[in-house]
């Protein structure tokens, strides 16, 4: 059986570029939202003429659309992910533009009739409303408030749940900017971690769970977590997700 230090070294060595989570097979599980975001996005892409995927990661989800629109653009702010996205999206005619998550979008007003985004780190509602054409659709699956809170609080102690990711706050902001909300659904989804390696890789990859996470900074709490998983066989947390779909007035 591997020692704690060996498991830590393994967790640090795993590449974390892109949004491909297949590495976690057998080491962690996460229940999927009932609405099926990839399917919904594919349906809307098939009806679109000009679409953009904001914060595409490595382009994993976008590359799987069955029928891409004539004009397909993706944005990504992290260079290693942008490189992966260019490789993946070339097959579907997608163009990748490097732009920071909180930056203004480098597109003209009304440039797209479909804007999509899965798990955006930052949501620039003003820019989404600006680049959407009248009658255009915004579809997004987002991280809800308190997501994976059990894991975060095990490492950092109790912390308040902020309102930045509140779906009702998103509704109010979008409505004020001229978007009519058509669908808004939230779910809590069970997650299971079977070893501390999976925890380390997850925290390195999903950086907003514990901002500023480093193995050295949290070594004592990771050791405590490792011992708990050895005792119980797993660590259980819950991710929060919400589906958001809106149409621009006009």
Automatic annotation (TrEMBL):
<feature type="domain" description="Methyltransferase type 11">
    <location>
        <begin position="53"/>
        <end position="138"/>
    </location>
</feature>
<keyword id="KW-0489">Methyltransferase</keyword>
<protein>
    <submittedName>
        <fullName>Methyltransferase domain-containing protein</fullName>
    </submittedName>
</protein>
<dbReference type="GO" id="GO:0032259">
    <property type="term" value="P:methylation"/>
</dbReference>
<dbReference type="InterPro" id="IPR029063">
    <property type="entry name" value="SAM-dependent_MTases_sf"/>
</dbReference>
<dbReference type="GO" id="GO:0008168">
    <property type="term" value="F:methyltransferase activity"/>
</dbReference>
<dbReference type="Pfam" id="PF08241">
    <property type="entry name" value="Methyltransf_11"/>
</dbReference>
<dbReference type="InterPro" id="IPR013216">
    <property type="entry name" value="Methyltransf_11"/>
</dbReference>
<dbReference type="InterPro" id="IPR052939">
    <property type="entry name" value="23S_rRNA_MeTrnsfrase_RlmA"/>
</dbReference>
<keyword id="KW-0808">Transferase</keyword>
């Amino acid at each position: 059986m591997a020692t704690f230090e060996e498991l830590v070294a393994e967790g640090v060595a795993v590449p974390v570029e892109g949004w491909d989570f297949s590495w976690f097979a057998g080491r962690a599980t996460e229940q999927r939202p009932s609405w099926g975001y990839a399917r919904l996005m594919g349906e809307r892409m098939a009806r679109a003429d000009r679409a953009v995927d904001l914060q595409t990661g490595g382009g994993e989800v976008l590359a799987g659309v069955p029928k891409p629109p004539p004009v397909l653009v993706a944005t990504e702010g992290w260079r290693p992910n942008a490189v992966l996205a260019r490789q993946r999206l070339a097959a579907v005619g997608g163009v990748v533009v490097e732009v920071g998550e909180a930056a203004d979008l480098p597109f003209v007003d009304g440039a797209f009739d479909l804007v999509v985004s899965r798990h955006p780190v930052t949501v620039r509602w003003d820019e989404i409303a600006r680049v959407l054409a009248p009658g255009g659709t915004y579809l997004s699956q987002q991280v809800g408030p308190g997501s994976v809170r059990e894991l975060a609080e095990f490492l950092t102690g109790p912390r308040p749940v902020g309102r930045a990711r509140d779906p009702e706050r998103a509704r109010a902001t979008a409505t004020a900017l001229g978007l009519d909300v058509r669908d808004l659904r939230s779910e809590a989804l069970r997650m299971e971690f079977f070893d501390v390696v999976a925890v380390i890789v997850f925290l390195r990859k999903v950086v907003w769970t514990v901002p500023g996470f480093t193995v050295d900074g949290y070594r004592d709490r990771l050791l405590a977590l490792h011992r708990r998983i050895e005792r119980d066989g797993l660590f259980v947390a819950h991710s929060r997700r919400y589906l958001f779909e809106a149409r621009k007035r006009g």
